[in-house]
Known about the structure:
Layout: E1 22-23, E2 30-37, E3 42-53, E4 56-61, E5 71-76, E6 80-81
Antiparallel strand pairs: 1-3, 2-3, 2-6, 3-4, 4-5
Amino acid sequence: MPEDRFPSPLNAAKTPLPRETQALSRVGKVPVLAYLEWPRFGQYVPAMVVRTAPGRVLVQWWPDPFKPGERHTWLKDTDVRRDLRVARGSPQAPGAA
């Protein structure tokens, strides 16, 4: 597959040296929300933490949940969240406003 077909998010972090990375101990993968920046928009996607390094996290995510294939991207740890909180009554909150 050509690399230009699947561009990296603009906020992708530099790949750390192998000696800096570590797998999650006693836990295979941890579900998270990953923030990806694209040229025209930002997007939160469901993801799994695969490996960690100081200040960075390797996440596995799926460009299309209805098609096979996943992506792996290193992100800054500030772009990965366990949950997403939204103030009640805000335009981003689900349900009636």
